[in-house]
Amino acid sequence: MAVYAIGDVQGCFDELQALLDRIGFTPGADRLWFAGDLVNRGPKSLETLRFIRDLGDTAVSVLGNHDLHLLAAAHGHPIDHDDHTLDAILTAPDRDELIDWLRHRPLLHHDGQLGFTMVHAGLPPQWDLGLASSCARELEAVLQGDRTADFIARMYGNKPKRWSEDLAGWDRLRFIVNCLTRMRFCNRNGKLEFRCKGAPGKQREGYYPWFEIPWRASRDLNIVFGHWSTLGTYDAPGIYPIDTACLWGGTLTALQIDCEQPRRIELECQGHKAPG
Fold first, then answer.
1. Assigned domain for 273 exists
2. pLDDT tens across 225-256, in order?
3. What are the φ and ψ backbone dihedral angles of 118, each rounded to 5 degrees?
4. HSE on the CB side for 126, CA within 13 Å?
5. Which domain covers residue 149, as residue numbers?
6. 263: domain CATH number?
7. How many domains does the chain have?
8. What is the DSSP string of 139-161?
9. Cα 212 from Cα 235, distance rounded (Å)
10. Helix orientation angle between 129-144 and 148-155, rounded to the nearest 10 degrees
11. pTM for this structure?
12. CA–CA separation, 120 vs 164, rounded Å?
């Protein structure tokens, strides 16, 4: 059995199939971890969502910000009126089943035997694995329960920007979702910064990639994450970014994580959006 973590697909279904052919993926024998953002902006979001759902227990996928955009749109909160790549899902005959499957995906996945943890975006420096897992479960319980629509109506926003155990209610849940699905930079005290989406070096002074905060409580983990297509190649112990900008003409990455030294396999993509 092999285990591969795959970066943000975002509806690039043909590239996903080509990558699975390249790695020799065998359903039922191998396992796939998807780092979120299965849908949106690419040309075949519906096909991608159906395929990954139908993999069943062979695959695990954490929720990304674009997956949450789909949930928001399904609850009457369209995000981008110029982007119609989610329309095929929203008008599909199995729409309700797909949306229900998606909202039951986790926000963090940890495998103690393999020694890897996967989130879509990042972890604030105050969170160790136990706290991160607990916070993820808090949000999952809301998304999977009868308060999904209430949360989605309050989900978007950049505040609060710093973790506190005293956070409660919608503010607490908004901070959790922003960390797990949106964060890139923070300062040494853990204050989040959302304006910069570029590569490290382009952010405001005093802010750093979340994984470079030296005292972060998760520094002993091996963390696989997507979301940051402009990050580029990054080589640091325990840090495995796998969003390599397939949607923007980069590559789609599979990272084999069941071996002594994780191994990258990349597929060059034609690109469905202009880079930038």
1. no
2. 999 999 987 878 999 999 999 999 999 999 99
3. -125, 130
4. 15
5. 3-268
6. 3.60.21.10
7. 1
8. HHHHHHTTTHHHHHHHH------
9. 12
10. 120
11. 0.96
12. 21
